[in-house]
Structure formats: structure tokens, C-alpha cells
Amino acid sequence: MPTLYGSQIAQFLEEFQFLLVLFMRYHEGVEITIIYLEKERLHMEKQLTRRQIFTMKRKNLELKVRKFWNDTQNADLVIEYIVAIIVRNALVKSDFSQPCPDVVRELLSQAEPSETFKKFCIFLKDYVEEHEWSAMIKRVFQNENNYYKATKKMRLYEGYLKNRGRAVLNQDYDRYTLVSIFLDEKGKKHTWRLRDADPSNTLDETTRILKILTTLTIFQKDDVRQFASYVDCFCKGSSTLFSSRTTKDEPREQSAQNSTRPTVELTAETALIDGFDLQTLTKTELIVMIKRIFEEAEAASVEEDTEPNKK
């Protein structure tokens, strides 16, 4: 067996220590990578969907948002979730005002000043007192000039959420559904239906509120962002309440001013076709209209048969 001298032993120990450090770093790196990938998988699984945000009841929805925040601490996604729920509150009759107040207050006081935070923070102003808001501005924007510059566009949108509810209804139904059409970021149309719609919003008010969704990035399908561009909307009860789809003879400006469609009263003197959009009439209204047409046709036929006798 060869004799090892002290210098050789020292060199061997040094090389062994180096290899051991490399092995530990490699093992640690693999472990960190596995933990990161698992965290990303859980993160993707827990993201809230459009269906959850716009259909769940308030209590369960707030629990979902709160759990997502506690598990991920992803401030950007949570802020967009909150804004989407605030938009829902403006469009429906149910109360979703100021959702998840504890989460929002934590965000405003602790979240990193990301671009998403700066962009949407104006929607969260009503959650805190004035002095708390001033402290947030100083922490995130350094001064008010930067704050007003960064939130200029969103302050306009935030005002749309409050300046609404001016529609005068001639009809009242138990349920309303808001049907809206958007383009995704590839230009493909998609239709979105929101139940429990608030009929007190006029067409213009509803359009302005819906356009807030075009600023969000959380709604995607097959990695393609939805709500990229607003196209159209109409609200339905048992018949169409309002619609931004106009006939060729009716200018859009005139349609926008008429936020509600008047009750259809069919009489013998009423024009049966002119002035009515057949696509918006209910089944009952169409039946009445058809009956009137037959009645007038029959009356005209009788009058034509009796005309020679008069001579």
C-alpha cells in the first residue's frame, strides 16, 4: 500500500471537500427547481377563472380570493381580481361593493409598487382613509405628480363606476341578462353573458363600464387574452331592454339616447311592421302582430267583396 505524505493527504481532502460542495450545490439546485416547479403548478391550478369571478356568490368568491392571496402572495393577479369584481358590482343588482377589504388594505400597505399595482390602485381608494391613501402615494409613487400621471386613464374609468344608474324603465322584469361582445387579442369575436344585470344602467353607462375589462389581462383562453376590445352589448329581460345594434334607418346617436325600449302597444292604428325590430320582439308580441295582420287582411278582403254592392 503506497504511503501518503501530509501534503498529499491535504490535497486529497481539499479535492474531496470541493467535490462535496459541488454535489451539495447540485442537489440543492435540483431540490429548489422541483420546489419552484411545484409552486408554479399549484399557482396555475389555483388561479380564479372568469366563471368564478362573475358567477360565484360573494362569500365564496371572497374566500377564493383570500386563499389565493395567502397561498401565492401574487399582488398583481389579486389586484386584477378585485378590479374585475368591482366591475361586476357596477353591472349587477347584487351587492359586491368593496370585496375582500382585509386583502385590499394589506395590498395597499405592503405590496411591491409594480406597474400593475400603479395602474389599478385608483380603484381601491375607497377602502382606506385619506391619510392612509396619502401614505400609499408616498410609498409607491414618491409624490402626487407621479401618482396623477400614472393613474390619469384609470381615474377616468373609475369615475364610470360611480356615474351610473340614470336609465328610466318603462318595463320591469324579474331577471335581466347583459350580453356583450368582445374581440380577443387575435381579433376573434367572443360573446359573454352576465346574469343579474342591473337595468338601471343606460346603454352608454354600461358600455363605459364594460370597457374597463379591456384593461385587464387575467382572462385568457388557450393563452390568448380575451376582452381585448369592446364591440357591442345589449340587455335582456323577457324582451330586449336596450341594444347598441341599430337599424339602417336609425342613427347610432339616436339609439344611444333611448336607453330603454318603450312598451309595444299594438292597435289597429299602429304600424305593424314599420318601426319595430322583429328580432327584439317577444314570442307573445309576434303572435299579436301576426293576428293583427290577419285581421286587417280579412277586413280588407271583406271590404273588397262588398265594394260592387255599394255601386
Question: How would you portray this structure in words?
Answer:
There is one protein chain. With 311 residues, the protein is an alpha+beta fold. The protein contains twelve helices and six strands. Among the domains are: 117 residues, no CATH class; 81 residues, no CATH class. Strands 2-1-5-6 form a four-stranded antiparallel beta sheet, covered by helices on one side. The chain has a two-stranded antiparallel ribbon with strand order 3-4. β1 and β2 form a beta hairpin. α7 crosses α8. The radius of gyration is 31 Å and the shape is elongated. The N and C termini lie far apart (144 Å).
Annotation keywords:
alpha+beta, 12 helices, four-stranded antiparallel β-sheet, 54% helix, 311 residues
